[in-house]
Design goal:
Layout lengths: L6 E5 L3 H13 L4 E5 L3 H11 L14 E4 L6 H6 L10 E4 L6 H8 L4 E5 L9 E7 L5 H11 L3 E5 L5 H10 L1 H19 L3 H22 L3 H8 L5 H11 L2 H23 L1
Parallel strand pairs: 1-2, 1-3, 3-4, 4-5, 6-7
Antiparallel strand pairs: 5-6
């Protein structure tokens, strides 16, 4: 993959920062990568894993792409410690949850900000990242941000920042919600007599295969249900039970509550 950036600086080498670094090293070999990290444990980890020695502070460069992968609660202290104009010539891509574009523009004194919400499958390059560029970000800069975040999976770009809260629920929280359902599948299988490895394999393959079938064929989920539900058959009994007990509505309400909490946390952070 060819990425048109002179230098990418990843600030913060936690789980998401390391996932992005790994993706960049694997898929964008011609890009210069710098890492900013203060934790001695993480510095050693980055050195062992990638052979890169992180810097303790950000040193601005011409036309940098800066990926902010620090904890949201650390952003205020981080931004206050930066010299004036440090990000004036940089495109800033944030993976911080709950920090608005306006807050970053004000704190960093730049209008070139792209807010993103990736998720944990990014660790194996199967992530889903939703991006929202600030109003002053150009089409070319948006495309560059999409290219960079695509090293950890797929991307979707929206222009309405309010959708980031919904993406936080669906994409950010989605792996946990799916894992919760997977846990029920595994429990069922083990109680039926399968061993733990068999239960995990069957559950993972059912989820993976169903996802690939749905996306690859473009089939509607309801259509996929009907294709498996023989009238009077086994699957129909399970689906009818879920419908009678409102499982669909419970799942949607859980997503709504997650999205609303994201909005609440965003207001607290302003």
């Amino acid at each position: 993959m060819e990425i048109s950036a002179r230098r990418i600086v990843v600030i913060g080498a936690g789980h998401m920062g390391r996932a992005i670094i790994a993706g960049l090293r694997e898929k964008a070999l011609d890009v210069s990568i710098d890492i900013v990290e203060k934790s001695q444990d993480r510095i050693r980890l980055i050195g062992d894993e990638f052979g890169i020695e992180p810097r303790p502070t950000y040193e601005p460069g011409q036309d940098d792409v800066v990926i902010l992968a620090i904890q949201p609660q650390a952003f205020e202290e981080f931004s206050a410690a930066q010299p004036s104009g440090a990000f004036a010539r940089s495109l800033v891509i944030s993976v911080m949850a709950g920090v608005s574009i306006a807050a970053m523009e004000n704190a960093l004194n730049t209008v070139r900000v792209v807010r993103t919400i990736p998720n944990t499958p990014s660790e194996i390059s199967q992530g889903m990242t939703v991006l929202c560029p600030g109003k002053a970000v150009t089409g070319g800069e948006t495309s560059l941000a999409e290219q960079i975040m695509s090293v950890i999976g797929r991307t979707v770009t929206v222009r309405n920042e309010a959708l980031i809260d919904d993406a936080t629920a669906l994409c950010g929280g989605g792996p946990a919600f799916v894992a919760y359902i997977a846990g029920a599948f595994i429990d069922f299988a083990m109680k039926a007599g399968f061993d733990p490895d068999q239960a995990r394999l069957m559950t993972a393959q059912v989820l993976r295969g169903t996802a690939d079938l749905m996306y690859g064929t473009g089939r509607d989920p309801e259509e996929m249900c009907r294709q498996v539900m023989t009238p009077g058959g086994t699957t129909e009994q399970g689906i009818f039970h879920y419908r009678d007990n409102g499982l669909h509505d419970l799942l949607v309400e859980g997503l709504n509550r997650s999205a609303n909490r994201s909005r609440e946390l965003g207001r607290i952070g302003r």
